[in-house]
Amino acid sequence: MTELPKTFDPAEIESRWYAHWEEKGLFRPERPDAEPFTIVNPPPNVTGSLHIGHALDNTLQDIAIRYERLRGKDALWVVGTDHAGIATQMVVERQMEARQDKRTNYTREQFIEKVWEWKAESGGAITRQLRRLGCSMDWANERFTMDEGFSRAVIKVFVELHRRGLLYRDKRLVNWDPRFRSAISDLEVETQEVKGGFWHFRYPLADGVRLANGADHIVVATTRPETMLADMAVAVHPEDPRYRDVIGKDILQPITGRRFKVVADEHADPELGSGAVKITPGHDFNDFEVGKRAGFRPAEMLNMFDADANVVQTADGLIPERFLGLHRFRNDGVDGARELVVAEMKALGLLVPHVTRNKEGEEVVTDAEPRTIQTPFGDRSGVVIEPWLTDQWYVDAQKLAVAPMQAVRDGRIEIVPKTWEKTFFNWMENIQPWCVSRQLWWGHRIPAWYDEDGNPYVAESEEEAQALAGNKRLTRDPDVLDTWFSSALWPFGTLGWPEETETLKRHYPNDLLISGFDILFFWDARMAMMGMEFMGPERSDPREKVPWRKLYLHGLVRAADGQKMSKSKGNVVDPLGLIDRFGADALRFFMAAMESQGRDVKMDEKRVEGYRNFATKLWNAARFLQSNGVTASTSHEAPHAEAPVNRWIVAETVATVQAIDTAMAELRFDAAANAIYHFIWDQFCDWYIELTKGSMDEETRAVAGWAFDQILVMLHPFMPFITEELWNLTGTREGELIVARWPQALYAVDGEAQAEIDWLIRLIGAMRTARTELNVPPGAKLGVVVHDASEETRRRIDRQGAALARLGRVESLSFGDSVTGGAAQIVVDEATFILPLEGVIDIAAEKARLAKALAAAEKERDSLSGRLSNPSFVEKAKPEAVAKAREDHGEKAAEAERLKAALERLA
Q: Is 858 exposed, middle or buried (0-12, 13-18, 19+ CB in 10 A)?
């Protein structure tokens, strides 16, 4: 047994043990006959770096997998990375730009080869960082969404969905990123507040038609004047009396001369602006739906932009030539279509100016009402997203959503916390077609070929497509698939599908998916759809059709003040920096302890530092035990014990195992972490070690060694590095801690011993509190007189007299009714413990001090109470100010109670 050094270096321990575990294959030990347990990691982008959300997500997964591995299961944590189409292509293109090079200088094949070269050189950063966190993943079978086997699965799913009528090509609006010239997903759209304008224009009614008030026009308002070049209707509410008589009449658009109808639609809000809305179905998601209800087919909807968001001619040819080629709005200092539209409408006298008054009462006229507009941006490109009407491939998500919804309803998929079920059903029941094509080069190229008439032939290979088409000349679709499409196959594609491998048979369905709630729809729901569509028919047992049995949704990691972390706010926390400062174990424990179901985690570096101190306390406890001859236990079973303190720690150990098992079964990571934390810090270190100092006989050494071993095993899922180090330094072991046996909670609870030691702890704690509150000198030993003690209490005092003397600073202990002079009284159960204080402290002065402090605490408490009972303060003050007042009130109320109790103790 190696002597433990005084201190430990987390960085050295972490790198050494992780390399050892991985080299020895201990993340996936051979257990062919064991019960399988399977989770898959949400594959991070190959371009990514570990952020604080990754740290939370992967810590929780690692806790679950280490826990199940210790319980003897065949625990598989599938690991891999996502090819991240847009992100990866952007990284490589930026590198090219830095060398005055660009993608279009190369063929598609040449560029893709450069991306693979980048991946080989730079694409492993995130996997190295996951190792630093301690993630015990199955690296020997690491997957990549573009690897050969997984790519085969992706292509097969696309072809099969098309064959089953669940995937089709359609013209619809998409989020179009003009920088990347590609459709992007909703998750890749970031809404920002932008200072903009709200313009009002007069749209003339055609053919001499007038409103009931005599007006020959309808006023419409818009934040995007440029889109009027593709307007196809004006919508009014069917019940709006101002416009009822003109529904079905024509508008004459002033710039284009296009005639279109006034249509009735409940999308128009009579209370908002003029109550009339210009409708541009080809460039607004709401207008698209209004257009469909008005009878326009998507193919008939007008498109006025090209892929770069520059104006092009519409199908009806009515956009004046002077607008063609302009950008949608001012760009690089050059006016765009927006500015020209406003200028021309103003020149025509059809701009309704915005009129206000300044401080002097003078009239101020501007073209538009200033507005802060929620504007969609591409999260990577940084440009404004354009709703764009284009031909794309879509999955019929509505049909695929039926089976997962039923699985959640009948309990085959359990969502934890259950409160997320309502959100899940709301989205799934209103799900829209899923656009799965992207206009990129990097990704899974869509397996579709077109003949010269534009007819598509979908097949797994060009040869198969040619067989479908006959002798027609074919051209392959240039687009690639959305990365969410491929990652939706992760639970089964990573296990060998479409081949029916032994791994797939054994580990599908997965047991658990741990995911952030923010990707519930983008990833989790789609995995459920794909899994049940492609794995469901192959399994007769309905329980085996789902991709995973439990879905655990955790919150976000927020800044200490509760704000969302963002680079612009400067409040982003680097988890690798925290690992450098405090160690991976401390960060992991923080994440677990703060992960409360249904709540976000507030970042608190002080707490991370506190858990680093917790690790130090554990290390020091091991050093104390070693110095007293305590070594590794030789038995998985608890040693026989006679002494109450040893019987108590055995019982407390068993109770902690039970608490952790219950918490893990319910996925209460915070409860599990707090159970082991309080057992180690409070019961074992603060009390058991203190109570056994100076009386370390053979029984106590055996019990202490066994209890400490159980501590290391129970703490290992949360703090794997320090526990593995101590496991191997404290005695001879059959194997590493990572593959040890989880403690069994089968021992009978020793209620008698628990009751006695709990009594002792309460008594000593009360004595220490009284001494502190009454300013008794630390070195002073007091006599104690016990009044009204039962026979059981007398026996306990007799057995625990030595501990009371040492830890309670008791000089003598007797039984009686009273003492002469001043004294403090402590009541524990039925007995009163009287501490004579005559000559130890100035009782009169102490009473005066306590009374003065009590009055001050009560005054502050009542002042804060008054502020909190004032509705004006609670409703108008900043939330953080109200929270601080409540916190201060609680502290002052507790302080007042403590001082009052101390004053009452003085007889």
A: middle
